[in-house]
Each structure stands twice: as C-alpha cells, then as structure tokens.
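Tokens in:
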C-alpha cells in the first residue's frame, strides 16, 4: 500500500462515509502543498504552507465534513480556504450541482488556490476577511471555518446560513480549541 492508500484506510477504519473517502481518494493533496513537502503529502498531519498558515490534517478535515453532514448539490462556504485543498474535497462531495465558495485573507494564498483549482467549474474564491462571510453569494447550506480561532461564531456568518443549515468551526483561542457544529433553527444557532 502506498501512503495515500494507508491514509484512506485509516480514515475508513475511523468510520468516515464513503463520500468523504471517495473525495480524499480523488483529490491529490500533493498538488496543494509546497514541492519540498510532497513526500509528506499523505501523512495525517497539518503541513506548513508559508505565511504562517497550514494545510489541515486529513483526519480533522474528515471530522469537520462528518459534522457538516454534506449532501450533493449543496452550497458551501469555506472561511480561511488557504491553498484550496478543502475546497477541492468539498467540490467532490457536493458534486457538479454543488456550489463551493472560499474566502482567504492572504492574497498570495487566494491566488495560489485559484491556480490549484482552475479545473474545477463549481468553485469560486475571493480574497477577504472571512469574518464577514460572502453576502453576495449567501445564503449557504453549510459553512466550514478552517482558519482563525473565534470565541464564538461571527454574527455575519450566522446570518448567511440558511435555516436548518450547519456551520462547523474550531472555537477557542491559540491555547486550545474545540470543534463545534451548530444548526440554524428559527434564526438561532443551536449546538
């Protein structure tokens, strides 16, 4: 078994869905990381991208996807889309009728992700502060916050989530975070 097959097998043993496993099988993580780290592409660890940013650990991404309860055809926003790896995975899961949007505050990473994702027709990326969401594209079925530790979900993001939509985020600070999922019910976020 090669490194990628071992990673997929480990994710399978952790009970992740067929859709999540298929997405990880199809998307080449090595295409989203610096060339000098490509030999580590399928290690289940976060890797540096430069600009004091990382590409998330595959297990963490899969866990967030499970909490999102993603479905085909959904409209998804990723806040802190970095190199575009999670956007590519989201595109595979939501399919050709899905719409995937990414916001990245670091211009160089946003530009790099646009290049990485040029063959994906259902992904759009913009440079900006994700705290404010992407009002022009809202509402979203799902929102995933991949960057920045917030103490709570920014109200602008909660407002851009559809009723019964789900938002997943690491909440806390630089010393500790918890992964949480909220569903919007009657205009309020519920754990």
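Residues out:
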């Amino acid at each position: 078994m090669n490194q990628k097959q071992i990673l997929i097998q480990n994710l399978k043993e952790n009970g992740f869905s067929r859709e999540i496993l298929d997405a990880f099988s199809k998307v080449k993580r090595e295409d989203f990381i610096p060339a000098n780290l490509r030999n580590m592409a399928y290690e289940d660890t976060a890797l540096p991208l430069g600009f004091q940013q990382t590409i998330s650990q595959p297990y963490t991404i899969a866990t967030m996807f499970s909490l999102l309860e993603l479905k085909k055809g959904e409209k998804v926003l990723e806040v802190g889309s970095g190199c575009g790896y999670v956007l590519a995975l989201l595109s595979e899961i939501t399919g050709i009728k899905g719409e995937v949007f990414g916001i990245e505050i670091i211009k160089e990473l946003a530009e790099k992700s646009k290049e990485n994702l040029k063959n994906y027709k259902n992904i759009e990326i913009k440079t900006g502060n994700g705290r404010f969401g992407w009002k022009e594209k809202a509402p979203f079925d799902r929102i995933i916050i991949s960057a920045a530790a917030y103490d709570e979900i920014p109200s602008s993001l909660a407002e851009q989530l559809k009723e019964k939509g789900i938002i997943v985020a690491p909440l806390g600070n630089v010393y500790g975070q918890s992964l949480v999922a909220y569903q919007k019910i009657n205009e309020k976020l519920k754990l």
